[in-house]
Structure formats: C-alpha cells, structure tokens
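Hi there, hope your week has been kind to you so far. For a while now I've been wondering how a particular protein folds. I'm sending you its amino acid sequence along with the backbone structure tokens. Could you read through the record and tell me how the tokens relate to the sequence? Take your time with it, there's no hurry, and the full record follows here.
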Amino acid sequence: MENNIDKYVEQEDGRYFEERLIITDDVDLNARWTLQSMLAWMQEVAESHSRVYKYGFEDLRAKNACWVCLRYHLKLESYPRLYDRIQTYTWAEPARLGVYPRMFSLEDEAGAAMIRASSMWSIIDLDKRSMVNPIKLGLPPYPTRKIQSFSDLKPLAKINIPEGEERLYKYRPVYSDFDMNGHVNNTSYLLWFDNHFSLEDHRKYEVRDLLIHYNQEVRPGMELDLRFILAEDKVFFSADSEAGNHFQMLAVIG
C-alpha cells in the first residue's frame, strides 16, 4: 500500500487536503496511531500547505528563519488505526501580533470527525532565536482570509495543574530528540509522555483532550527535570531546566 496521497490541493474554501494511510511505523502495540506520529503528520501537512504561500521550510531557511510551534489544543473523538485512510484538512487563520493560527480536521473515509486541533505558531530568526517579521525578510504577505476557528479549542488557555501523585525524573535529550532547527522537536515530548506509562496503561486508556504549551526551546546539552502529576482523569507533564520552563501539557484521559 502506498502511504499517501491522492491529491495535494488547496480547495476553493482555503482548506488544504491530503489523505494519509496509517502504516505499521505509525501505530503502537494496540495498532493505534501514536500521539507523536499524529502530531508529526499534522505538521507535515501544514508544511505542504505553507509551501503554497511561499512560507515552507526552504522558503524560510533561505531567509535564515523557521517556524516554531507555541501552542496546541487537540480533541480526539476516536483514534485512527492500522491501515485506516485519514482525510486531513488544514487551513491558516489570519496572523495577529506575530502569532499564526492554524487549524486541523482529520476525518475517516466516511467524513466522520476523528481529531480536531487548533495551533499557534511564530517565525523566528535562526541566529537570534527570536520572533521576526517575515515581510521585513522579503517574504510575501501571509494569507488574511478568515475561514473557521473551533470555539471549543483554546490553545491559549492557561494550564491548571491538578492535584495528584507526583513523579520527577532527570533527562538529558539524545540524538533522536533533535531536529534540523537545532532544538528538541516538538513531537519528542509526546514520545517522552507515552514512554512514561506501562503497556497495560496504554491498553486501558486513551488521551481524549490535549493542551500543549511550548514555552522555550530545548537546545543540545541541557539537562531537564521532567515532572508528571497523575490525577483521576488527567495527567500533567512538564519539562524544566535551570533556564526555566520549556514545555507543559495537560492530557485528559478516557
């Protein structure tokens, strides 16, 4: 079976579409799509769509810049499984104050909603590691078309830390955690999260709601304090170092 793709197209309504076949590398021991692979796929589709606007990886790298993710909020109605074909839609919402919203909707072949996500991004200078105005870099204007937001997805919402059992670990990121932008890839945190739990936990439970805050990048050589707090139906996970908080997320478990 080919993994992908019947068409790469931005539709008249501004949504970009790709189909994804879930293959063996995408799933866990339960034949269920993993969170890390899911997020990586959404970002690949976002990259494909960004190239339409001349804001793809190579377009930004030519200006010594890159995309960085700030926030995600995902709701998972059901999980794709091995050999499912997932209809993936993404679209950009108008930027504001240097923040670029992007939405995702993943459906099964019958058109039933499986996963929805709202994300927030910025563009940074690779040397200064700070936000940069793409117009000043000579890039074309970013799309300003208002398409659709999800009222129940709030990626900018505050993460409230639940009360529960606390577990602390030391971790120094390794080779496979880093990406081409010289920092821990934002999907790596989801692998760390999943690896914290037992095989039995993964058989019994699924993440149904996921709020993620990326607060500062993790560069090579940093040692992290990983913190888990396990409540009745929620798990809080964070990564901190001497530089402060880098990442935190709240998962609702069902």
Notes: The two ends are 32 Å apart (CA to CA). The chain has four helices and eleven strands. Residues 1-6 have pLDDT under 50 and may be disordered. The chain has two domains: 9-137, 165-253.
